[in-house]
Amino acid sequence: MLQRNGRLTLVGALLFSSALQAQGVAADGRQVVMQGDGSGAPCMACHGMDGAGNNAASFPRLAGLDADYIAKQMRDYNAGTRISAIMQPNVDNLSEQQILDVAAYYAEQAVPAAQAATGNEELLALGEKLANRGDWDQYIPACESCHGPDNQGVGSTFPGIAGQHGNYIRQQLHAWRSGARHNDPNQLMTGVAERLTEQQIEAVAAYLGSRQAVAAEGEQ
Amino acid sequence: MKHNFMLLTVVSAVMSTQVVASDAKVPVNLPESKPGQYVHQAPTIDDLMADESVHPELRKVILKGYDLFMNTQQLRGEYVFNDMSCKTCHMGEGRMNWSGPVWPAATTLPDYRGKNKHVNSLEERIAGCFAYSMNGQPPAYGSDDMLALTAYHQWLAKSAPVYEKNISGRGFSHLGKQIPDDISYAKGEAVYAANCAICHGNDGAGQKKDGKVVFPPLWGDGAYNWGAGLTRVFTAASFIKNNMPLSKPGSLSDNDAWQVAWYINSQERPQDPRYTGDARATREQFIDFHKHTRYGTDVNGKVLGQHDNTGEKPFLKPSNLKPRTFE
């Protein structure tokens, strides 16, 4: 009986908060992840049901990322501020509620174990330096100055990049440089990406790709 | 002939740099050095590790100083009572011109400082940052922590001329000291909302992750106190112009930098350690400093700084901030 009351209170609280701000429902998101938006491939085809993604194919890990961050990326594909020939047709029929649901689903998936480091020690050391100290002589602040301690992300604006697939990080840094991706608030990422050398991109991708991710909510 | 060729090479090198800069979507727009100014290139930690002429014990002490500089929060509750570290204001490891490079303190001090009206040593200058910007209690003069910090400063000064004062990119004053006539709280608030709030928050409280400061607070208990140099509107304006938003130096107009500095420094923060019990009177007593701040003036119906709030710090004035005379 007590438990029942507790649940009722919880339901009441959820209803109340959803009245203030739309909430994603992970269970509904699971359906969308399996079925897609009706006109393209389902999310699971590339990102997996577990949200682990795929390094070889540059499909990003979504598991454990901040839900609001994931939702914003889907909206940005539809708005054209983040251009991807693969992603845009696969999310363009999602409703706002479905976007929230998919984001909620992937955000609560457990983060996978860190991958074996690729690249030699020298490259990884350069990547670590860029991630944690930056290269100020080229006006490149450390990744962690926005992406937070150990680059595990801060809030819904600055995603966790530790434990993200290296190939995806490299691809995205190139997308920032070319302008294919320009959905960064205040262009906070654009300038940094265009100042990095190709070697620095390789290094930071290899280093971050080898780190263990921690879920955005810190519950893993 | 050879001379001409060299000149041509230099000209084309300069031109190609400009082409690259103008092609950038987010250029690095920092001020030019004035003719005759000394331009310093401070060494890096990598240089320190590679320099075999440095005694291993000294290297250890410099690295300790670097570590304290970058993460001064490790002294939280002992010497630091807010969310600031040295690197918060002295960006780029304290090495960067236009970001308050710290090495000039090692080459120009001891010297007379108007702020406390006596000759200050390097240690005393660092003590000022602890007392005001970090709202704390400076480490004791001659202590291991102080030695480590001064050693890092001096390392950064390597090869710089002693007593040279005409230094490019020093301090935060390149916009001058004259506040524009069209200064307004509302304009500053709009600049803040558009450019700063995403990191520092609408409430100016900054953001932490797992208890660690990521984006520092700009006002409130976690921020620099009313005696810190950054409370001067001109200091904040120049800091912002050449350093903010992070990775986009020079992206705000001069006027926007002034407006937002005015807005940020119109907010409450921990008490000036020199407080006498009355903010208006304290302002008058230290008017050379406070003529550049809004402390002790009426802002939005309240006298800024008229309170007993010292933030997390359980005292008002650090015991080792003292006047000094040779009479």
Automatic annotation (TrEMBL), chain A:
InterPro entries xrefs: Cyt_c-like_dom (IPR009056), Cyt_c-like_dom_sf (IPR036909), Cytochrome_c4-like (IPR024167), Cytochrome_c_Oxidase_Subunit (IPR050597)
Keywords, in A-Z order: Electron transport, Heme, Iron, Metal-binding, Periplasm, Signal, Transport
Q: Which residues form the Cytochrome c domain?
A: 24-110, 122-212
Task: Please state where this protein is localized.
Answer: Periplasm
What PANTHER family does this protein map onto? CBB3-TYPE CYTOCHROME C OXIDASE SUBUNIT FIXP, CYTOCHROME C4
Q: Which organism is it from?
A: Marinobacterium halophilum
State the name under which the record lists this protein.
Answer: Cytochrome c553
Q: Which residues bind heme c 2 per the record?
A: 143, 146-147, 189
Automatic annotation (TrEMBL), chain B:
Alphabetized InterPro entries for the sequence: Cyt_c-like_dom (IPR009056), Cyt_c-like_dom_sf (IPR036909), Cytochrome_c-type_DH (IPR051459)
Q: Does the keyword Repeat apply?
A: no
Q: Which PROSITE patterns does the annotation name? A: CYTC
Keyword Iron: yes or no? Answer: yes
Source domain of life is Bacteria
Gene Ontology MF terms: electron transfer activity; heme binding; metal ion binding
Please report the name of this protein according to its UniProt entry: Thiosulfate dehydrogenase
Species source reads Marinobacterium halophilum
